[in-house]
Amino acid sequence: MFRRFYGLGVVAAVAILAAAVTIPIVILLVLSVKTTVSIRERGATFSNFSAILHDPATWHSIENTLVYTVGSAFGAVLLGGLMAWAIAMVNVPWRGFLRVLPICVLLLPPLVKDPAWIIAFSHGNGLMDLFLRDTFGVRWPFDVYSMYGMISVTSVFGAPFAYTILLQPFGSIDRSMVEASSVSGAQLGYTLRRILVPMVRPAIVSAITFQIITIAGGFETPILIGTPGGIPTFMGQIYSLVSVPVRGLNIAAAQSSIYLLLTFAMVSMYLLATRNERRFVSISGRGHDPVRIEAPILRWVLTAGILLYAILGFLGPLLLTILTSFLPFYSASAGNPFHDFTWANYTAVFDEPQVILAIKTSTFIAVVTAVGVVLVGGLLSYVSLKSKSRLRRVCEFIGMLPIAIPGLVYSVGLLLTVLSIPGLAPIAYGTKGLMIIGEILVFVPLAMRLMSSAMIQMQDELLEASRMGGASMARTIRSIVLPLLRPAIIYTLSVTFVLSYRELGAVVLLVAQNTVVVPFVSLTFWVTGGFTMLAALNIVTLVAPLAVVGLLAWVDRVTTRVPSRQALPTPSAEAAAAPPTTLAKEKELV
Amino acid sequence: MLVAACSALVALSACSDPATGSTGGSGGTAAGVTLKSYSDAATLEADAKKEGTLNIFLSPDFEPFLVQGFKAKYTWAKVNYTGVQPDQAAAKLSAEVNSGLNETDVAGMYPTAVGGFTAKNQLAKVEVPNDAKILPQVQDPNHFFHPMTNTSNALIYNTDQVQTPPTTLAELADPKWASKLVIQTPIGSGTGSQVFAMPYQSYGDAKWHTWLDDLAKNKPSFADSNSSAFAAVLRGDRALCICNYHDYTNAPKTAPLKAVFWDQDTFGALGGGVGAVITQKAPHPAMAALWMNYMLDPDGGQKGMVASGRASSLVGVGGGDVLPPGTKIANFNEVLADLIKRPEYYQAAYKKAFGL
Is A240 in contact with B187 (Cβ distance < 8 A)? Predict the structure, then answer.
C-alpha cells in the first residue's frame, strides 16, 4: 500500500513540479516575442531580441557578467572548499566552534553585506581608508565600487554555500584510503592530488556550477555596487527593465531567455559531472573512519584564516550594521562617522506599519517554504539516487532545472503566468501562496544538493540489507534512511529558512497589497535613502532567523541519542582498537 | 522539454487572438475613458462609501502621511496599499492592465510615464472638486494625471569635498567633475531622464549629444532613486548629486551639505514631482476619485504633504520646501515637451552615451 502511494506521490510531485517550472518558462518565451504582456497579442516579433543583440551595452554587460560570475564562483569555492577541507580533514582546534562559523554568514539579513562593505571599503571615505590614512598616512587602494569589489563581496558571502556542499564529501573520505596511499610511499601532496581531490571532484564541480548559476542570477550586488560603479550586468539590466512600463517586461523576457540558454548548459554540465555518483560512495555497510591530517603549524594558519573569514563575512558586517543603526545619519566625508548615537531609527522602523506585516509574512513564508523544500527536494533526491524508478533522471533534471532560472526572472514568469491564465489571477495574484511557490522552486535545487550530498555517501547495500531482512519500504525509510539523513534534513531546514527569509529576487515582483516581505521593505529603505533605518531594520529582523536556527539546533541536539555508559559493555582491547560502527561515526561527523 | 516549450511558443505566437483585452469594455474614447466626474464632495463621498475599498500603489514616502491621513479622515475606508517606487508602480500597473487583470484603482507615477498608458487607453479621466486648486504649471489639462507634489530638484553637494559647485548643467561636462556626480539612472522616467533632457531644446540635437558624451566621459554614478543618490552624497561616496530639494531640507542640520539651483539664467532647475493616475477599469472608481480629491484637499492631503517635506501642488498653499527667493523653476511641460512626446529617443541616447 505504501509502495503504491509512494509511486503515485512521486509521479504527482514530478508532474506538479514540472508544470510549475516549465509553464512560467513557456510564458516568458512567448512574451519575449511580443510587444505587450498579453499572450493573446496576435503574431510574434523578434524585435526584442534584435534590440538586445544589436545593443553594444548588452555585450558589455555579458562580458561583465561572465567575469563577475566566474571570478566570484571560483573565489567562493576556493574559500568555502578550503574551510570545508580544513574542518573536515585537518586537526584544527575548536572544531565544533569553527564548523558553524561559515554558516553564520547565512544568518545575515538581506542588504547587510553590500552596505557594510561599502562603508568599510569605499575608496576615499571607507573606514579602512580612514584608518590607514590616519594611522599610516597611506590610502586604501581597493575600491568596492569595482569589478574586484563585486567579486570580493560575492566570493566572501557565497563561500558558505560551497562550504556546505563540500563539507560532507570531505568528511566522508575514509582514512583507510589515505593510509593505503601513505603506506605505498606517497607524500601528502600526491595523496591530495591523486586520491582526495578526485574523490570529491563531483562535489567540487557541482559547487562551482551551482555558484556560477546562483551568482549570475543574483541582483543585489549588481544593483547596490555594480550600478553605481558603472558596471552593468545582465541581471542588473533585467531588474532595470522590469521597472520600465509597457515594453520593458517583454525585453526583460527576451533577455531572460538568452540567459536561460546559458544556464541550461550549466545544468547539463552539472548532470554530466555527477552522473557516476556511485563511484564516490564512501559510507557503506563497512566501518568508516574519517581522515585527520596532523599539521602542527598549518592547523593554526587555517584556524586564523577561518576566524578572519568570520570577521570579514559575519562579525564585521554585523558590527557595522549595529553601529550604523544608532546614527542619525551616516557620513564619513569628515572622518569617523560613529558619534551622536540615537534610538530614533528603531522608533522609526517600528512606526512603519509595513515592517510588522513584513516580519509576519516573511516568517510564515519561510517556514512553509523550508518544510516544502525538504519534502520536495528529499523525495526527488531519493528517487533520483536510491530508487530504480524510470523517473530517476527526470526527477534529477526537474529538481535541478529551477537553478537555471534566476529568482527575479522566475518572479516575472510566475507573475505573468498568473495574470495570463483565466480565472487564476483572482485566487492567486498577490497571495502568499504564489510567493511560496516561487520560493520553493527557487530553493529545491539547493535542497537537492544538500540532501544528495548525504544520500550519495550512503551505499545501496544498507537499503538492500534492510529489504533482505524483510523490512517494508516505509520501514526502511523510517528506520534507516531518515536517521541517516536527519542531520542533512535539519541542516536543510535551517539553511532554507534563513535563505527564504532573505530572498528578494523571487518575490520582488510578486509583492502586492498585504503581502509585503522583509527583503522588499529593506530594498525600499535603501532606495529611499534610509541608510540608517535600513541598518536598524536589519538588526530587528535578525531575531526570526536566529530563533528558528536555534530551535532546530536544539531539536537536533535533543534527538541525538547518546548511549548511556552503563548500557555499554566494557570493551576488550581488540574491540577498542576496532573501527567504530557506521552510525556512531556518522554522529561524530555531524 | 525545451523543444516542447519552443514548439508551444511558435504555436501560441501563430494562433493568438487579436489583442482586445488591454482596453476592453466599451473600447473607450480616443484618449482614455472618462469616469463619472464629481463637482460635489458630498456626492463623491457617498458614492465612495458604497464601494468602501481602495487598492493603491504608492511610493513608501507618502504612506505615513497621505495614506494614514486618508484613513483617519475616512474611517470607514479599507485601503490596500503597496509601497513601490513610481517606476515600479508603473511597471506593475502595465503588467496588470495588459493582462486584463483589474485589481488596482490608483497608482503613483512620474508624469513622463503617463503617456505610455494613455496611448493605449489604459487610464481614466476624472474630475474632482479640488482640481481647480492645482497649480497651473503642474496641471494636466486631460485630467489623467493628478499631481501629489510639486517637488523641486537641486544640485546638492558635500561641503567636505566640494567648495565651489557647478551652477549649470553644461559645467557638469567639465573634466574637473569627473567621478563626482551621482544621479538617478536615466533609464526609466525619473529625475535622471528628465534632467539630462532639459538642455535639449536650448542646445539643439547635435550639441546635446556632444554634451551627453562629455558627461559620460566624467563617469557619473547612477542610483536607483533620488534619495539613494542623496544618501551617497551624504555618506561621502560621491561629491554631488541632482536630487530632491526636500531631502536636503529634511537632512540633519549638522550634515555636511549645501544646495544650489542650476541654470538660473536660462531654463531654470527641474520641477515636477510625482502624481497619481486612475486605471481605466478601476474596480472602485468612486474610491479612486475620493482619493484624488483628498490628495488635492488643502486641509487633508496637503497637511500630509507638508509633513513629508514636499512642496504643495496647490494654489496658495504654503509649506513644504521653501525655496530661496527668486529661484527659477522650469515649467515642466514646456522644457520637457519633447521628452514627453518621444521618450524612446531619449532612452536610446542615454543608453548609447552611458553604456547602460
Answer: yes
Which of B353, B332, B280 minimizes the C-alpha distance to B151?
B332
Give φ, ψ of A575 to 5 degrees: -65, -40
Q: What is the pLDDT of residues B140-166, one digit of tens each?
A: 878 888 887 777 889 999 999 999 999
CB A119 within 8 A of CB A330: yes
Give the residue from A143, A112, A116 showing the smallest Cα distance to A330. A116
Query: Of the candidates A248, A328, A333, which has its C-beta nearest B91's C-beta?
Result: A248
pLDDT (average), residues B302-309: 59
pLDDT of residue B309: 56
User: B23 pLDDT exceeds 80?
Assistant: no
What pLDDT is recorded for position B165? 94
Q: Do B88 and A232 touch (CB under 8 A)?
A: no
Nearby residues of A341 by Cβ (< 8 Å), 6 or more positions away = A326, A327
Q: Point out the residue among B14, B16, B85 whose CB comes nearest to the CB of A527.
A: B85
**Neighbour-count burial of A406, counting CB atoms closer than 10 A to its CB (0-12 exposed, 13-18 middle, 19+ buried):** buried
Residues A338, A132 contacting (CB under 8 angstroms): no
Q: What's the rounded Cα separation, in Å, for the pair B33 and A130?
A: 59
Tell me the pLDDT tens digit for each residue of A458-473.
777 777 787 788 877 7
Work out the minimum CA distance from A128 to partner chain B, whole angstroms: 14
Query: What rounded mean pLDDT belongs to chain A?
Result: 79
Q: Which chain B residues contact residue A18 at CB under 8 A? A: 1
For residue A514, list chain B residues with Cβ-Cβ distance below 8 A: 80
Q: Give the integer Cα–Cα distance in Å for B289 and B126.
A: 7
Chain A nearest-CA distance from B125, in A, is: 20
- Look at residues B320, B117, B111, B265 and name the one whose alpha carbon lies nearest to residue B197: B111
Contact state of A125 with B237 under an 8 Å Cβ cutoff: yes
Lookup result for grid cell 504649471: B137
DSSP 8-state class, residue B324: P
Instruction: Say if the Cβ atoms of B225 and A529 lie within 8 Å.
Output: yes
Q: What is the pLDDT of residue A124?
A: 78
Rounded-to-integer distance, Cα A84 and Cα A32, Å = 42
Amino acid at B21: G
- pLDDT at residue B162, rounded to an integer: 93
What pLDDT sits at residue A278?
Answer: 47
pLDDT recorded at residue A573: 37
User: Residue A174's beta-bridge partner residues?
Assistant: A290
pLDDT at position A308: 94
pLDDT score of B31 more than 50: no
Residues 6+ apart with CB under 8 A from A155: A71, A72, A75, A76, A78, A79
What does the angle CA B276 – CA A252 – CA B354 come to, to the nearest 5 degrees? 85
**pLDDT higher than 80, residue A587:** no
Residue A560: is it exposed, middle or buried by C-beta count within 10 angstroms (0-12/13-18/19+)? exposed
Grid coordinates belonging to B246: 526636500
Task: Measure the CA–CA gap between A248 and A29, rounded to whole angstroms.
Answer: 15
Q: How confident is the model at residue B257 (pLDDT cuts 50, 70, 90)?
A: very high
Q: In chain B, which residue ranges form alpha helices assigned H by DSSP? A: 2-15, 41-51, 68-73, 86-98, 114-118, 191-197, 200-203, 205-217, 226-235, 245-250, 285-295, 301-307, 332-335, 337-341, 343-354
Cβ-nearest to A125 among B8, B236, B247 = B236
In this complex, which of B158, B221, B228 lies closest to A333 when CB atoms are compared? B158
pTM of the model: 0.77
Higher pLDDT residue, A105 or A268? Answer: A105
Question: Is A433 an 8 Å CB contact of chain B?
Answer: no
Dihedral (CA of A348, A353, A356, A358) sign: negative
Q: How far is A129 from chain B (nearest CA, A)?
A: 12
